[in-house]
């Protein structure tokens, strides 16, 4: 990657020398225009988050009369203490519990299945993989009612198990892991097999440690996906005690708070729920980018 | 969602470090072929392990994806009202009775469903081109070879894609509130902003209003012709002002993801190709039009289809921001199916809407498959023709020698 760029710069310098002054002026102008566009758009992308941050510390009146200002007139943490006294901590805890279980389940089960589909030869493997692909194409939103029907039938509706179990595996994750396992050499596994290790032992102590990059990607995507999940928690529960951050904050907006806009408390609620994903994002950005295209599929 | 066909190229690891992955894959493939030698006893154990390894995923996906779809299909054909089990003896098969009020029988149900199709149709019509263009534009801007702060800009544009749709929606509720950020900015340039999420007026109606054609006196040709329970005048409303705010939000949020796809494709364009064009003295625009764009075509198709499939599924934003209002102008099929079932207890109808939506999305996917396969097949045919020709001309002397 870095050599690629060095080459690019060298080649670029070469052509600039050859180019006459007119095009050089032209390219300088376009470069200035390019930077201006980049910065302007970046502002459009960052400003809403700054507004979110600033408004969380404003009073209701201040938020309504000075929506543009990034500095509260009267700095207050009232919104946060109100959230702490309400159900917010419970929602947060529910989100943490659900996300941890879902992430652990997806990472383990998806890599097991991905390994089997990539490496183990068994009858029906091709059909299974085709089925996984087909499942990836099922639009999540048409599953809203169906999922409720099954959870209800199984007596899992309105329980943690109903919120967690259906998310424990996803086709996209299996796909990511299969792709990865196919890309690592078999030689080590073969050596272990000759030593008489069982298939699970080989998978657990030989293959998984080699799969660290893919595992990190899958962990991040699973955490982000389950933390941000809304529709499934709408149809798998109704008790307020089982609200996650997504359903809880959505209920804040739809009039749970009583009269008035009360934007500071709403935005404080969204600010706090954004922080965990933001931290993970900034810590593991490269893995996000790597999984970005594959992660575009919910499933 | 329909990643699989162009997917492998877009898969994990393809962007940042293509070379080593590709090499490794080749090595793995080679060894795999060698592996195919028969191995007797180990085979059975491996077969058992294989099924054991996939069984958890199989159970979860089967139980919460395949079974639910079949169950919902039954409900969409039954008169189940949400009480008890849909398989109990009191529930009857009613054939297409849940589908006909939506599609053919005129009435409130039909006009609501048609309104939701209209709303979602305009939403797709605006979001897909806008997000694709913005994503491509951002990718081109960020891809500059000597650009400083590349990482910063990429992060800024991509960040909304990883945050919660609920959080972003609430922030945008504030930004577009009647005394919010957008209206304050508009006030600074002397424009009286609308009450965004309370404004059901369609933008095409508003535009026509400038010519004196408005809701009070719509042209009778349009007002008197009714298709699917909606007058032509209603069909051509355009997205409502409220829907426009949602369109802005979604384009803003999703462009980052698609930018990454374009970026990966741009980085796969061999440097020599662009250099050659540069040395030839082609202008920037011509280079983009005739060199870059053709090489981006597969990604462009991918982004367009993912957009087409995704936009028919809009739910989260509607649920958080408008719940279908004002005056049903942000009602979408996905939200209508949720509302019919969970709020109004019309489970058969809700399921029927979900299956019609499913059919729409499958049609979009097949359309994309068809367009893409057409190209691949043509290419493959050309390749076989070329190979056959080469073989024929090459085999001549060989057979002669024999």
From TrEMBL, chain A:
Residues covered by region (Disordered): 1-23
GO CC entries: plasma membrane
Keyword Transcription: no
Biological process (GO), any one: transmembrane transport
Location of this chain's protein in the cell: Cell membrane
Transmembrane segments: 32-50, 91-116, 128-148, 160-181, 202-223, 263-284
Name of protein: Carbohydrate ABC transporter permease
Organism: Streptomyces guryensis
